[in-house]
Design a protein that fits this description.
Elements (H helix, E strand, L loop, with lengths): L21 H20 L1 H4 L19
Keywords: Membrane, Transmembrane, Transmembrane helix
């Protein structure tokens, strides 16, 4: 029995967004921002917020001969 159907050429089209991993870069940037904000908020507990105290005298005596 012969095949009576005509031969049909088929083409498959695959669409891509063309972003090239933009979502991954955005996730890394957001992660870095979150880490920096947390470090800023908890800097005292982590030991980064130790303040240097400078004491300035109220009066300075100068002797001129």
């Amino acid at each position: 029995m012969a095949d009576d159907r005509d031969e049909v050429e088929r083409t498959t089209v695959i669409e891509t967004d063309g972003g090239g991993g933009g979502g991954g870069v955005l996730a890394v940037v957001l992660l870095i921002i979150v880490v920096l904000v947390l470090l800023f908020l908890f800097r005292d507990q982590l030991g980064f917020g130790s303040k240097t105290e400078v004491k300035v005298p109220d009066q300075i005596n100068v002797n001129v001969n």
